[in-house]
Amino acid sequence: LSIVIFAFAFIISSYKAKLVNVPGEVKADLLSLRFTNSPDCLAYTNPSTGRVHIGTIDLAKWTSDHLATCYYTEPEFGYRGINFLLSIPGYEDIQTNNWRNFKHYTLRRNVLVWDGSTLDATNLTIFVQEHVSRAPKAVCAEVEEVCDEQKRIDR
Description:
155 residues
């Protein structure tokens, strides 16, 4: 009887864990909303009205350094979390501080871009890197510092 109770409890706990497990794509999509919706991130704020234009990227904020002010992961363990590389056609890509040069999946958004004088419609591509425990060998061959850092962490 105790074995049956133990097995039943195990099945219930496994089922409960599956119910509350949020897929990585959903987490990444929700996290990435801050890039285009938050004035602390990349969203354009009209200086005269103070209105935040959701879905409009201010190119004055389009730097990896500015991105780190709104999404930052700890250098020692951040590579195990979700990291992003953002790309807009015609502009230099920006990335979060623990981006490791490979992606797990891609998100796309239609956005407006404010360059200080004009507003243009374009596409924002968000490359997502999730829970990297080790860099693939192909990446190590291309990006030496990734492997060097990995060796340091493994010690």
